[in-house]
Amino acid sequence: MKPTATVTSRSTKPPRWARKSMLVLAITVLAIAVFGTSTQTWIEVQLDPAGASSSALHVQGNKAATAVTALALVALAGGLAASIAGRVARWIIAALITLSAVGIVAAVISVLANPLGAAQGSIAGATGVSGGQANVAPTAYPVIALVAGVLLAIIAVVLPLAGRYWKSRTKYDAGPAGAGPASGPVDEIDSWDRLSRGEDPT
After folding, report:
1. In this structure, what are the phi and psi dihedrals at residue 3, rounded to the nearest 5 degrees?
2. For residues 38 and 72, is the Cβ–Cβ distance under 8 A?
3. How far is CA 5 from CA 2, 8, 61, 172, 174, in A?
4. Helices (H), 47-183
5. Cα separation of 146 and 107, whole Å?
6. Residue pair 47/120 in contact by the 8 Å Cβ criterion
7. Is the Cβ–Cβ distance between 65 and 42 less than 8 Å?
8. Which one, of 23, 34, 32, lies nearest residue 85 by Cα?
9. pLDDT by 10s per residue, the chain, length 202
10. How is residue 12 annotated by DSSP?
11. I need a surface site. Which of 11, 49, 79, 161 has the fewest CB within 10 A?
């Protein structure tokens, strides 16, 4: 019987920072965190600057920075797509997540730098007067969104670099240990060769 050469491949374990499950989970959690903060109160508004009235207004993140919710959803979709994307697609997805993260950070910084301006739309809707004065105070939620946005940008930069350690399985990949090699076109050709020589291919 003719000896057959067996080719074995060593699977190099990716470093911890490059693990697909860890990066995809991190992007998902951070994007959900940004989305979640946008539903919370970002700015506390006291409509009477003199303090004679206790009338207060709570401005949510999706009102103070309208783009944050959509950008968080883009980042979330990108993180999920990165888990099944190819090498070129991962670069495109990483660029989209980076742009989304930069947009989130810019929007949050704008709110923190000028909370009164960010709340003007809600103030006008509540009082019927645009450009009115009020006492405003940001809450902790925009800060949380800012931190999550910065972390998203960092992970988006790491994503295509980590993708070099990821391996995609095909139907011709070796099966699990003990299951034997998967059948493929090479096995079929070898069987025909044996049959043509009058040998039993089984």
Report:
1. -70, 140
2. yes
3. 10, 10, 63, 18, 15
4. 61-64, 67-82, 87-113, 115-127, 141-162
5. 9
6. no
7. yes
8. 23
9. 455 544 444 456 777 777 888 888 999 999 999 999 999 999 998 876 655 555 688 899 999 999 999 999 999 999 989 888 888 888 999 999 999 999 999 999 999 999 988 888 888 887 766 666 778 899 999 999 999 999 999 999 998 888 776 765 444 444 454 444 444 454 555 555 665 666 655 5
10. P
11. 11
Structure tokens given for 119: 């709340």
Q: Which residue has the tokens 């009115």?
A: 132
Q: Please state, in angstroms and rounded to a whole number, the distance separating the CA atoms of residues 108 and 177.
A: 50
104 Rama class: left (phi>0) / alpha (psi -120 to 50) / beta: alpha
Q: In terms of residues, how long is the chain?
A: 202
- Give rounded-to-5 percent helix, strand, coil for the chain: 60, 5, 35
Q: Of the candidates 63, 77, 78, 67, which has an alpha carbon nearest to the alpha carbon of residue 119?
A: 63
